[in-house]
Design goal:
Strand content: 5-15%
Low-confidence stretches: none
Strand order of the largest sheet: 1-2
Oligomer: single chain
Distance between the termini: 53 Å
Structural class: alpha+beta
Largest sheet: 2 strands, antiparallel
Radius of gyration: 31 Å
Length: 110
């Protein structure tokens, strides 16, 4: 617990530092989505033909190409993206044991 004599009220001289993201600045995910949606004339990694596609499509096709060439990590990432990552499950078994092993039901009548 804080000592009361150490506590200070906020005054015009004593203000906490203004940390954090400035108002109006964009979130990192917003910026990433903007650039992934950018349409460009790009070489399709699967067909080797120039096509108009988004960066996201191009990256996904490149990942598919790597998976088809035997890259297991690329395959795993594709499966996780398409079907969701598997949940980790913990199997738990409870075995009931008496709290007082020396006491039986017959002893409780006495």
């Amino acid at each position: 617990m804080a000592r009361e004599d150490n506590l200070k009220k906020f005054t015009s001289e004593y203000q906490p530092k203004n940390n954090g993201r400035p108002k109006g600045s964009k979130n990192r995910s917003t910026i990433a989505k903007k650039w992934l949606e950018l349409e460009q004339n790009i070489n399709n990694p699967l067909t080797s033909q120039n096509e108009n596609m988004s960066q996201e499509d191009s990256i996904t096709l490149a990942l598919i190409k790597k998976a088809r060439e035997g890259d297991t990590q690329a395959y795993q990432k594709l499966m996780d993206s398409a079907y969701g990552a598997p949940l980790q499950q913990i199997e738990q078994t409870n075995i009931e044991q008496p709290l007082f092993p020396d006491v039986t039901e017959d002893d409780s009548d006495k």
